[in-house]
Amino acid sequence: MNQTGNEPVAVGSEASDSLSVRPAPTGTDSMPASPRYAVNAWTTPHNSALEDIEQIARTGGRGIGLYEGKFQPGGDQALREAIELHGLEATFCVPRTWTILPVPFNTPVTERDPRTRTELICESIPRLATFGPEVIVVGPGVSGDPAEPAGPVEAVADGLARIADVAAEHDLKIGFELLAERRGSPLHNLPDIVKFIDGLGRDNVGVMFDIWHSWCEPDLH
Predict the structure, then answer these.
(1) Strand-strand pairing, 173-177 and 135-138
(2) DSSP assignment of 127-153, as one string?
(3) What is the C-alpha to C-alpha distance for residues 196 and 135, in angstroms, rounded to an integer?
C-alpha cells in the first residue's frame, strides 16, 4: 500500500466508543517512519468485521483484507463508513465462496460443482466492488491430498476466465492465489501458475502470492 502525505489515521479506544484522530507518521523518501501493513480478516476468525477495522487502525495498520463471510446482512454501508473513519483502505476482498473447485473444509451443504461455485463468486463481485479493493482474491481449490490434486484444471480455467470478465466490468483485478502442493492444489508453483494465467488471455488476472503456500517451492528465489 502507498502512504502519501500526512494523512490522518483514526485510532479507536478500548475503553470507549470514541475515536481520536492523529496525523499519520511521516518519513523520508527512502524510509517510512513506521511500518505500512494490512491485515487479512481471515486470520482473525473470532473478530467481527468491525472489530477487525478498529484493531487494525489502533495498531497502526493502513489496510484491511476483507472477507465477505464476516459481512452481516444490511451492514455493508456501516463497514464502508468505519473503514473511511479509521483511515484504512481495502487491500483485497475475498468472496464468501472463493475457490472454483471445492476444498476439504467445506460443509456438506456447500456447493461443490465448479460452475455453480464460479457463479457464486461472480455474484459477490458487484458487492465487493463497492469497497474499492485492489484485487478480488480467487483460488483454484485443493483436495487435501498431494497425491491426488484437485481437478479438473479445465474447470478452473473456464471459471477464472468467467470471473475475470465479470471483474473487468467493475474495473477490478483478480488476484489468483497459488495454493500449496501439500494441500493438493492443481496449480502449486509460480512458473505453472504464470503459464496458466497467460493462457487465459485476460489482462486483469495476476498472482496472489502467499509465502505460507510457497515457502518450500524449489528455486523460489
Answers:
(1) parallel
(2) HHHTT--SEEEEB----S-TTS----H
(3) 18
Q: What is the pLDDT of residues 87-113, one digit of tens each?
A: 999 999 999 999 999 988 766 668 889
Question: Residue 125 CA to chain centroid, in angstroms?
Answer: 12
* Residue 164 to residue 203: CA distance in whole angstroms: 9
| Cα radius of gyration (the chain) | 19
pLDDT tens figures, 18-48: 333 344 444 445 555 566 889 999 899 999 9
pLDDT in tens, 112-130: 899 999 999 999 999 999 9
DSSP letter for 30, please.
S
Amino acid at the residue 170: H
Q: Shortest CA distance to 190 belongs to which of 164, 161, 210, 160?
A: 210
Each residue of 166-197: b (16+ CB within 10 Å) or e? bbbeeebbbbbbbbbbebbbbbbbeeebeebb
User: How many residues belong to the chain?
Assistant: 221
DSSP type of residue 182? G
Residue 49 half-sphere exposure, CB side, CA atoms within 13 Å? 22
Q: How far apart are CA 135 and CA 204, in angstroms?
A: 9
CB 23 within 8 A of CB 12: no
Measured between alpha carbons, how far is 165 from 23 in angstroms, rounded to an integer?
A: 40
Threshold 0.90, pTM exceeds:
no
- Give just the sign of the alpha carbon dihedral 109, 110, 113, 117: positive
Measured CA to CA, the distance from residue 29 to residue 21 in angstroms comes to 24
